[in-house]
TrEMBL record:
UniProt-annotated binding residues for 2-[(2R,5Z)-2-carboxy-4-methylthiazol-5(2H)-ylidene]ethyl phosphate: 447-449, 479, 499-500
Name of the gene this protein is made from: thiE
Domain Pyridoxamine kinase/Phosphomethylpyrimidine kinase, first and last residues per copy: 31-285
HAMAP family named among the record's database cross-references: TMP_synthase
Function: Condenses 4-methyl-5-(beta-hydroxyethyl)thiazole monophosphate (THZ-P) and 2-methyl-4-amino-5-hydroxymethyl pyrimidine pyrophosphate (HMP-PP) to form thiamine monophosphate (TMP).
Cofactor field: Mg(2+)
Pfam families, per the entry: Phos_pyr_kin (PF08543), TMP-TENI (PF02581)
Residues that, per the record, bind Mg(2+): 383, 402
Catalytic activity: 2-(2-carboxy-4-methylthiazol-5-yl)ethyl phosphate + 4-amino-2-methyl-5-(diphosphooxymethyl)pyrimidine + 2 H(+) = thiamine phosphate + CO2 + diphosphate; 2-[(2R,5Z)-2-carboxy-4-methylthiazol-5(2H)-ylidene]ethyl phosphate + 4-amino-2-methyl-5-(diphosphooxymethyl)pyrimidine + 2 H(+) = thiamine phosphate + CO2 + diphosphate; 4-methyl-5-(2-phosphooxyethyl)-thiazole + 4-amino-2-methyl-5-(diphosphooxymethyl)pyrimidine + H(+) = thiamine phosphate + diphosphate
Record text on cofactor binding: Binds 1 Mg(2+) ion per subunit.
Keyword annotations of the record: ATP-binding, Kinase, Magnesium, Metal-binding, Multifunctional enzyme, Nucleotide-binding, Thiamine biosynthesis, Transferase
GO MF annotation list: thiamine-phosphate diphosphorylase activity
Organism of provenance: Corallincola luteus
Annotated protein name in UniProt: Thiamine-phosphate synthase
Length: 536
């Protein structure tokens, strides 16, 4: 099953951090005006750090005004491209656009079936398939016959992991209409019943929220909503191809699918915002690489209610603030550890007691809060937000799953700071909409301390997220030690949190001093300068 979190296997070191390029194949038609089709696919795929290979299904003659011809290649020509690429450049993800004939649909479907089955049997990674069902060009011209669409529903859809139709294409494939203002659940249900792993219905031609373009993703179990301001532009040639290829390129580099959806939507928004007229008709989407301005990123939510509630949450009062740079941030499980850290000059720290039945929980939190006050430190309580409020802690740290159950308004009313865990751009935006005091970005490296359902994010993604939210206090966590901490700080992140680097250190106090120095902790830096001065 395609979940919002999976990319079907190990991480690919793409996106600038490693040498391995994720290979994405684009199967589709050539657009000689280069606004859409294979030409747009390649620009999106390569511009986002993956390597694009192409399999041409048809040579179209088109410009910004009309499609004058669609000339399908023969099945032999199509087959020869698939075979030669597979022998040498196997794909991580296959993005499919225009399949021009019934025979092409049947051939590609059978080929995908065999590829998937053989990969599974031989223990190789099974390539994922993204299908953007090209039926009507942005000029309004039909690109394929009805019989081709019938063949798609019958033969191709069972091999598709992500389908990215617009409202018209979704209606054509599902055989039922979508209505403005009504959620497309029945259409999605029908498409899932036809065998696709998950569906992203794009909101470009379909209105769910006034003035906003709302894209809706579902795999039947969970949903993701992405909303962006509807842009008033006549220039959107290649919108569908660019979005689907951007998703494929990002997904192929090991990002969770939900994160690929967010970044690709940002990619499209910035490309549409910058698109200009070239011919007499719709100008092409601009290809500008990774979005670096958060204004281009969508508002997100796991339900429509959450998305629209964020309208009210975005504008009003944020949670009580904390400094952009929090210094070294140890996370420990006992008051004894807190006392040791405070004595060593640590100013930001967390009590993380994971056993909810712990008999002396209240006493431990009360003692921790008292110590925090005594040392004028920023003490966060993990999970136990009611006790944190009651006992007057400086702040609370919550995970994503707590956001549904904790009384965030009560935490805010009580004046406590709030930190929220995130594990990718989707969770980061979702949490940022609540305007917390800080956001934690994890896990950066593999960690032994906690079983993580997500993959390590690495330094490239950390830097990417820091660049997108320059004004929010951000804390990196997960697998950070004295060797890696400087590289973490070099991404521009405000602070880093550690567990085992301190609790498993041979001499905790010298490790604390080392880490405090790397974190730019003012007390530690002053102390180092004093010692250095004394030595002069
Ligand atoms: C600074 C910081 N970042 C992340 C976490 C993880 O919190 P959470 O997701 O709530 O998971 P648990 O710690 O409760 O297992 C954290 N505690 N601190
Ligand atoms: C508690 C925790 N939360 C994480 C997250 O990513 O949300 S990583 C993590 C464990 C961090 O421990 P260490 O420094 O020993 O790797
Ligand atoms: Mg927690």
């Amino acid at each position: 099953m395609i979940t919002p979190y999976t990319c079907g296997g190990e991480l690919v070191a793409g996106g600038g951090e490693g040498q391995v390029s994720a290979i994405v194949w684009a199967i589709g038609g050539s657009d000689c005006s280069a606004g859409a089709g294979i030409q747009a696919d390649l620009q999106a795929i390569n511009g986002l750090g993956a390597h694009g290979c192409t399999v041409i299904t048809a040579v179209t003659a088109q410009n910004s005004v009309a499609v004058s011809q669609v000339n399908p290649v023969s099945d032999l020509v199509l087959q020869s491209q698939l075979d030669v690429l597979l022998a040498d450049l196997p794909p991580r993800i296959i993005k499919i656009g225009l399949l021009a004939t019934v025979s092409q649909v049947v051939m590609v479907s059978q080929w995908l079936q065999q590829l998937k089955q053989t990969s599974e049997q031989t223990g190789h990674r099974v390539p994922l398939v993204v299908y953007d069902p090209v039926a009507v060009a942005s000029s309004g011209d039909n690109l394929v016959a009805e019989s081709t669409l019938t063949a798609v529903t019958k033969h191709l859809l069972p091999w598709i992991d992500l389908l990215t139709p617009n409202a018209m294409e979704a209606a054509l494939l599902a055989g039922m209409a979508l209505q403005d203002g009504v959620l497309p659940e029945p259409v999605i249900k029908q498409l899932l019943a036809l065998g696709v792993g998950s569906v992203l219905i794009k909101g470009g031609h379909y209105q769910l929220l006034a003035d906003h373009c709302l894209d809706y993703w579902s795999n039947g179990d969970s949903q993701r909503y992405l909303s962006a301001p509807r842009l008033d532009t006549a220039h959107g040639h290649g919108t569908g191809c660019s979005l689907a290829s951007a998703i494929a390129a990002i997904w192929a580099q090991g990002y969770a699918l939900e994160d690929a959806l967010v970044f690709a939507r940002g990619y499209l928004q910035q490309g549409l915002a910058a698109a200009v007229s070239l011919g007499a008709g719709a100008g092409p989407v601009k290809h500008l690489g990774w979005p670096t301005d958060s204004v281009m990123l969508p508002r997100v939510g796991a339900s429509l209610a959450e998305l629209t509630a964020s309208d009210e949450l975005v504008s009003p009062v944020p949670f009580a603030p904390c400094p952009q740079r929090l210094g070294l941030y140890p996370v420990v499980d006992s008051v004894a550890w807190l006392a040791r850290l405070l004595a060593a000059g640590v100013k930001t720290l967390q009590l993380r007691i994971k056993d909810p039945q712990s008999p002396d929980l209240r006493q431990q939190i009360a003692a921790a809060v008292a110590l925090g006050h005594q040392y004028q430190a920023r003490l966060f309580i993990n999970d136990h937000w009611q006790l944190a409020i009651e006992l007057g802690a400086y702040g609370v740290h919550l995970g994503q799953e707590d956001l549904q159950t904790a009384d965030l308004a009560a935490i805010k009313r009580a004046g406590l700071r709030l930190g929220i865990s995130t594990h990718g751009i989707y969770e980061l935006l979702r949490a940022a909409q609540l305007r917390p005091s800080y956001l934690a970005l994890g896990h950066i490296f593999a960690t032994q301390t906690k079983q993580m359902p997500s993959q390590p994010q690495g330094l490239f993604r950390l830097a990417q997220q820091v660049q997108l939210l320059p004004n929010t206090p951000l804390v990196a966590i997960g697998g950070i030690d004295a060797e890696r901490a400087s590289a973490v700080m070099n991404t521009g992140v405000g602070s880093f949190a550690v567990v085992s680097a301190i609790t498993k250190a041979t001499v905790a106090e010298s490790m604390i001093a080392k880490l405090q120095h790397i974190a730019g902790d003012p007390v530690a830096v002053a102390e180092t300068n004093r010692v250095a001065g004394a030595c002069l």
